[in-house]
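Help needed: design a sequence for this.
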């Protein structure tokens, strides 16, 4: 399993190729590509790299999917015995990005195409076994 820890919007996020993440609003349009170069950590199979503080030439590339707003947070302030009450809501502006690949220099550690094909092959491999087991179990109950 390949993943990286990147810094964006003052937060550290663990990202994997082929998955989407919500980060603070970015000044990009949907469909634009984004390169996150503040990579703190990468893990690819048994190879682990830790930056000090960042890994040189490491880039996590992604695509902006959409802009959205987060859940509403209610802020309620009250002063007892003064009849002072303030109720306010806040919804954070977010950008949803799809991680396409993790690379160091010219070497691509993982891409979303490889992750999706690996997941599809594992689903195909497990599905027939489950069907065969169900057929055998049904046949055993009919025979009994």
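Sure. Designed sequence:
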């Amino acid at each position: 399993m390949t993943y990286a820890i990147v810094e964006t919007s003052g937060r550290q996020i663990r990202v994997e190729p082929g998955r989407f993440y919500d980060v603070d609003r970015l000044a990009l349009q949907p469909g634009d590509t984004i390169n996150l170069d503040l990579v703190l950590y990468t893990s690819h199979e048994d190879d682990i790299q830790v930056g000090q503080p960042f890994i040189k030439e490491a880039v996590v590339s992604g695509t902006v999917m959409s802009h959205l707003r987060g859940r509403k947070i209610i802020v309620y302030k009250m002063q007892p015995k003064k009849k002072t009450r303030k109720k306010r809501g806040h919804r954070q502006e977010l950008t949803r990005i799809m991680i396409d690949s993790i690379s160091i220099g010219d070497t691509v550690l993982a891409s979303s195409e490889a992750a999706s094909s690996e997941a599809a092959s594992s689903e195909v491999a497990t599905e027939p076994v489950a069907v065969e087991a169900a057929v055998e179990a049904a046949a055993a109950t009919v025979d009994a």
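The chain has one helix and nine strands.
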